[in-house]
């Protein structure tokens, strides 16, 4: 029996990489476009992926790569938030065209950026999307494009991503900087306020389980993920690191001063409002469909993320 085929854009990144790995484990063939497929094949250490030439900004290349696919995963993001507004919609247009050409379902990871304070503290799938940031406005336009694309779409919305592959996420770019041993935590908001986090392998598991469920033409589900206070996150990081950690507030004044000269810091500053009060996702619809939500224990998930971003030695996994 021929294995089903998934085209995964962003297979070298966080959510795309997690979905590519989980689809392979579920028995799918995974085709991964890359601007330099030979280099990706040589450096990724993931022999289960079929690397092909393809740039997410090239509709023709992505459509050609989608031949025979049942699923197209839109897991690609501009690195370091650079040129977010200029790149996101054209890259999504490539994924939409590929899904349409192949007759495939498009999988799209949603975020809380789409929402403003009128939807807080508990966001469900029907809440109005009234963002107060530029990045949120782009995200809303992306989902509007999906709704009018006349293709089957599956959106799984989650909180701030973290996982074994560092990327555009708060854990590796703000709270515990990647590439250096963990000694301290810089937290962006009040430690007593709960915040929604999403471990990328859990997000990938949720997508795959939903693909195996009875889906209608287009559906959206929220993941609760790790809904924890700053105190609980710090405790999880300490359990993962095996030692006490210094805790300080993220230096927002320094970020504001440097933001005009650094696009990543400018985008981080724009998201500060999401840390000032509780922002959670209502997962009742997902639980009703699947009977539960995949959720790795927090300390275990944080340890994998810290090892992946170079903040803990790989030997820490063996000591667990």
- Main sheet record: 7 strands, parallel
Per DSSP E runs of 2 or more residues, the count of β-strands stands at 14
Distance between the termini: 39 Å
The CATH architecture of the domain at 5-161 and 199-224 and 276-295 is 3-Layer(aba) Sandwich
Name of the top-level CATH class of the domain at 5-161 and 199-224 and 276-295: Alpha Beta
Q: What's the mean pLDDT score?
A: 92
CATH topology of the domain at 5-161 and 199-224 and 276-295: Rossmann fold
CATH superfamily heading of the domain at 5-161 and 199-224 and 276-295: NAD(P)-binding Rossmann-like Domain
Proportion of residues in helical segments: 40-55%
The arrangement of helices and strands along the chain is: EHEHEHEHEEHEEHEEHEEHEHHEHHH
Low-pLDDT segments: none
Pfam families: Epimerase
GO molecular function: aldehyde dehydrogenase (NAD+) activity
Domain NAD-dependent epimerase/dehydratase: 6-222
GO cellular component, one term: cytoplasm
Outline of the structure:
This protein has 320 residues and is α/β, with parallel strands linked by helices. Helices cover 40% and strands 19% of the residues.
